[in-house]
C-alpha cells in the first residue's frame, strides 16, 4: 500500500487544557505513523471560513448532520473573537501507509458513546445530547479528515495560510501587566524517536505541569552546522572539564603498563594534552547524536543539509518560563534527577537524556535563531508531496 499524508488538528480547547502531549502520545504510538511536520496556527477569519466550507460533504443525512455540527464548532471556536483575539490551533502532519484510516480510527467517532478511553475522543472529547437528540455540549478534542481527498484539499488549504496565520503565535495569550513573561526553547531529543512510541507525547505532557503556553511547534532535523553552532559553547567547557579525568585515566594506564610512578607535573601535562582531545570527541558525539554525523566526518557540502535525526522544537511562553521548564526537566545526569522529572522518567545517560531546555531567556533567543523556530517547513513538504 502506498504511503499517504494525513493530518490532525488539535483544537483550541485541547491546547488550553494542556492535553496536547497525551494526544500526540496516542497518535504516534497507536498508529505507528511518522510525524513529519507540525505548526502552530492562530487562524484568521478567512482561513476558518474556507476550512469550514470544506467540512460538509457527505450525502448521507446522519453523517451530514455530524459534519454540520463540526462545521459550526469550527466557525465558533477557531475564528478570532469579537476583540480580534485569535485562538491557538496545532496542525500535526503524519506520513505512512493507510495514514488517513489509521488516524481516523485512533481519533474515534465524533459522537462519544463509550467511556473506556479507547480513542482520543473517548478520553478527551465530550458529546452531550438531550432526550430529543439536541446537542447541548460538544467538544471533539481533535479533527481529522474522513478520506484521502479531503486530507489533500485541507492540507493544501492550511499550507497556503501557513506563512500568514502561523509560526510563533506571539500575542495569542494575555498576561497581567508587568508580569515577568519569557519565551524558552525545548527540544524533544532524537532518543524519543527511535521507533513509534508514546515518549514524545509523554515528555510534552510532563512539561504541561508548568502551566506555560505553547506558541511554536516544529518537527526539526538539525543540520551538522546548526548542531555545531547550537552546542558551540559546550565545546570549551568539555575541553576544560575533562582535563583532570583524562589525566587520571591516562596515569592509571601508564603506571600499570610501564610500572612507573608519574609526577604531579607529568599528570598535569597529560591533562593539558588529552583534555582538549577527549573534550572534542565528546562534543562531536553530541553533534552526531543530534544531527546524525560527527563534524569531522561530514563532507563540506553536506553540513547544511537536514540531518538523519528527528527532534521536536517547542517554544513555551509564560511567567518565569525558563525556570519552570528547567525544574520539570531536571539536571543533565538522569541518575541525579528527582523523581517525577522528565530526565528521571525518560533519560538514560548525560547525553541521551530526553530533552533540552534553554538555561536563560537570552540563550533561548540564540537557540531559537539557530534552529529557526519560525521557519515554515510545513508548506514545502505539502507542496512537494502533492506535486509528485
3D structure, described in words:
It is built from 15 helices and ten strands. The chain is α+β, with helices and mostly antiparallel strands. Among the domains are: 1-168 and 374-388, Nucleoside diphosphate kinase-like domain (Alpha-Beta Plaits, 2-Layer Sandwich), CATH 3.30.70.141; 227-302, no CATH class. The strands form three sheets. A four-stranded antiparallel beta sheet has the order 2-3-1-6, sandwiched between helices. A four-stranded antiparallel beta sheet has the order 8-9-7-10, with helices on both faces. The mean pLDDT is 94. The chain starts with a strand and ends with a helix.
Largest beta-sheet characterization: 4 strands, antiparallel
Give the oligomer, counting copies of the same chain as homo and different chains as hetero: single chain
Spatial order of the strands forming the largest sheet: 2-3-1-6
Q: In terms of structural class, how would the helical and strand content be classed? A: alpha+beta
The portion of residues forming beta strands comes to 15-25%
Distance between the termini: 17 Å
What is the name of the CATH architecture of the domain at 1-168 and 374-388?
A: 2-Layer Sandwich
Give the secondary structure arrangement, pairings included:
Blueprint lengths: L2 E8 L1 H5 L3 H12 L2 E8 L3 H9 L7 H17 L11 E9 L1 H9 L12 H5 L1 E4 L5 E5 L2 E2 L4 H13 L20 E8 L10 H9 L5 E8 L3 H7 L1 H27 L5 H28 L19 E9 L1 H9 L12 H5 L8 E3 L3 H11 L6 H9 L2
Antiparallel strand pairs: 1-3, 1-6, 2-3, 4-5, 7-9, 7-10, 8-9
Helix pairs in contact: 2-5, 2-8, 3-4, 7-15, 9-11, 10-11
Amino acid at each position: 500500500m502506498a504511503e499517504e499524508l494525513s493530518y490532525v488538528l488539535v483544537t483550541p480547547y485541547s491546547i488550553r487544557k494542556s492535553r496536547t502531549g497525551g494526544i500526540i502520545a496516542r497518535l504516534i504510538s497507536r498508529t505507528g505513523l511518522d510525524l513529519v511536520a507540525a505548526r502552530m496556527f492562530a487562524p484568521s477569519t478567512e482561513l476558518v471560513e474556507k476550512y469550514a466550507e470544506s467540512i460538509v460533504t457527505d450525502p448521507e443525512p446522519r453523517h451530514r448532520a455530524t459534519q454540520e455540527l463540526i462545521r459550526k464548532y469550527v466557525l465558533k471556536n477557531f475564528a478570532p473573537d469579537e476583540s480580534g483575539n485569535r485562538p491557538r490551533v496545532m496542525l500535526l502532519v503524519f506520513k505512512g501507509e493507510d495514514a488517513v484510516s489509521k488516524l481516523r480510527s485512533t481519533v474515534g467517532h465524533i459522537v462519544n458513546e463509550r467511556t473506556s478511553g479507547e480513542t482520543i475522543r473517548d478520553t478527551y472529547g465530550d458529546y452531550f445530547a438531550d432526550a430529543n437528540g439536541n446537542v447541548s455540549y460538544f467538544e471533539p478534542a481533535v479533527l481529522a479528515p474522513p478520506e484521502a481527498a479531503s486530507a489533500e484539499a485541507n492540507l493544501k488549504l492550511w499550507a497556503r495560510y501557513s506563512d500568514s496565520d502561523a509560526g510563533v503565535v506571539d500575542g495569542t495569550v494575555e498576561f497581567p501587566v508587568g508580569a515577568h513573561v519569557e519565551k524558552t526553547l525545548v527540544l524533544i531529543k532524537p532518543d524519543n524517536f527511535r521507533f513509534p512510541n508514546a515518549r514524545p507525547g509523554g515528555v510534552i505532557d510532563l512539561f504541561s505541569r508548568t502551566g506555560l503556553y505553547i506558541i511554536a511547534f516544529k518537527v526539526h532535523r538539525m543540520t551538522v552546522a546548526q548542531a555545531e553552532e547550537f552546542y558551540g559553547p559546550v565545546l570549551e567547557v568539555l575541553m576544560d572539564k575533562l582535563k583532570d579525568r583524562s589525566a587520571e585515566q591516562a596515569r592509571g594506564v601508564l603506571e600499570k603498563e610501564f610500572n612507573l610512578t608519574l609526577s604531579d607535573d607529568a599528570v598535569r601535562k597529560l591533562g593539558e594534552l588529552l583534555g582538549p582531545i577527549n573534550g572534542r570527541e565528546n562534543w562531536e558525539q553530541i553533534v552526531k547524536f543530534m544531527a546524525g554525523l560527527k563534524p569531522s566526518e561530514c563532507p563540506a557540502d553536506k553540513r547544511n543539509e537536514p540531518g538523519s535525526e528527528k527532534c521536536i522544537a517547542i517554544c513555551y511562553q509564560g511567567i518565569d518560563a525558563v525556570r519552570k521548564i528547567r525544574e520539570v526537566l531536571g539536571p543533565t545526569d538522569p541518575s541525579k534527577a528527582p523523581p517525577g522529572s522528565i530526565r528521571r522518567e525518560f533519560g538514560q545517560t548525560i547525553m541521551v537524556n530526553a530533552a533540552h531546555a534553554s538555561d536563560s531567556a537570552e540563550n533561548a533567543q540564540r537557540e531559537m535563531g539557530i534552529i529557526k523556530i519560525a521557519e515554515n517547513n510545513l508548506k514545502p513538504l505539502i507542496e512537494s508531496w502533492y506535486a509528485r
